[in-house]
Write a structure and sequence with these properties.
This protein is α/β, with parallel strands linked by helices. The protein is built from 6 helices and 7 strands. Helix 1 links the parallel strand 1 and strand 2.
């Protein structure tokens, strides 16, 4: 069961839509927002959520740098991380997975698709995030979830 989610995203519009989807979905999920990678890593020193949604392009420390730090930290290396990005470049998707993302999700510009996607992600079994990661890999090539 998901109770606490951190969303690392510098775009206020993206934060707003994320918040709205969860408001409609389940008011009992506690959301925490940070605007850059430094804030994320600082927050995770004292608070470990059930899931982290991570944008790749953030100021001060980008999403890939955060992934490396998370996977190098024995207290955080099992934390499920979902990259939520507007890019669909196969090389970016592959790199995010190689750096330790459990899932790579393309940000839909359509609210209904975005909502459906987040609802599906929340309903996944995050007790074993590596199994979810492996579902999106074929012959060592990863694909996004959409």
């Amino acid at each position: 069961m998901i109770h606490n989610i951190v969303f690392a995203e510098d775009d206020e519009d993206d934060q707003f839509y994320f918040r709205e989807v969860f408001r409609e979905m389940d008011k009992n999920i506690h959301l925490v927002f940070v605007s850059n990678g430094h804030q994320l890593m600082h927050l995770l020193q004292n608070f470990i959520p059930d899931l982290v949604f991570l944008d790749l392009e953030m100021p001060y420390k980008n999403g890939l740098q955060c992934l490396v730090e998370l996977r190098d930290n024995p207290l955080l290396n099992k934390l499920p991380v979902i990259v939520l990005s507007s890019t669909m470049k196969p090389s970016n998707i592959q790199t995010a997975y190689e750096m330790g993302a459990n899932l790579f999700v393309h940000k839909s510009s359509r609210y209904s698709e975005y909502s459906e996607c987040l609802n599906t992600i929340i309903s996944m079994d995050w007790d074993d995030p590596e199994t979810i990661r492996e579902q999106y890999c074929s012959d060592t090539v990863f694909r996004s979830f959409n």
